[in-house]
Specification:
The strands form two sheets. The chain has a three-stranded antiparallel β-sheet. Helix 2 (24-41) crosses helix 4 and helix 6 (129-139) crosses helix 7 (147-159). The chain has seven helices and five strands, in the order E-H-H-E-H-H-E-E-E-H-H-H. It has two domains: 3-91; 102-159, no CATH class. 52% of the residues lie in helices and 10% in strands. It is mainly α and 161 residues long.
C-alpha cells in the first residue's frame, strides 16, 4: 500500500478578539489560512480544520461564535465537501479527487481519516468485521476499539465494498 507523509499548511497567526470585531485583516488571514489548510491538507475533516486553526489562534478551543464565522468563510471560499459519517470532509474548490495512498506522520483520530483515504488500507487487508477493525486500529497505533471507532469503521466497511 502506498503511503505519503502528511503535508502541513503554513499558517498565519491570528487574534481571536480581532476576528470577533470583524477585523478585515484577520478575516483575510483566516481566508488565507483556510485556503492553505484545505488546498494543502485535503481531504481534511472539519475537526482537523478546527485543530489547525486553534494553532493559528493559539487557543485551546474554538468558540461557537468563532466557528460560525469560520463556517461562513468556508462557504464563501467555495470548497467542496463530502460526508464522513461523523464529520464533514473538505476538498479544494476544484473538487473531490482520487486518493490512492494513506497519509502518515500526523496523529489523527481514526474517524478523522476520510473514507476515500481509508479505502486504500481496507483494500490491502482483505478482511471483514472485527478482524478488519482491529487491523485498521493497529495500523494507526490504537489498541482499543471504542464504540465510536467501531461505528465509524462499520461505515468505512460499507462504503468500501
Amino acid at each position: 500500500m502506498n503511503t505519503k507523509k502528511y503535508c502541513f499548511a503554513v499558517l498565519k497567526k491570528m487574534d481571536l478578539n480581532s476576528l470577533y470585531e470583524g477585523s478585515q485583516a484577520t478575516l483575510k488571514a483566516l481566508d488565507d489560512n483556510l485556503v492553505s489548510i484545505i488546498n494543502t491538507e485535503a481531504p481534511i475533516t472539519m475537526n482537523l480544520v478546527k485543530a489547525r486553526l486553534r494553532e493559528a489562534f493559539n487557543i485551546g478551543k474554538i468558540s461557537q461564535k468563532a466557528l460560525d464565522i469560520i463556517e461562513e468563510e468556508i462557504k464563501k471560499l467555495g470548497f467542496k465537501k463530502t460526508d464522513n459519517f461523523y464529520d464533514t470532509v473538505y476538498w479544494p474548490a476544484s473538487g473531490v479527487f482520487n486518493i490512492d495512498y494513506l497519509r502518515d506522520g500526523y496523529e489523527r483520530q481514526i474517524y478523522d481519516v476520510p473514507f476515500q483515504e481509508m479505502k486504500n488500507l481496507t483494500d490491502t487487508l482483505n478482511l471483514r468485521g472485527e478482524e478488519l477493525y482491529r487491523e485498521i486500529l493497529k495500523n494507526f497505533g490504537f489498541e482499543v476499539l471504542t464504540k465510536k471507532a467501531e461505528d465509524y469503521l462499520k461505515f468505512i466497511e460499507k462504503k468500501c465494498k
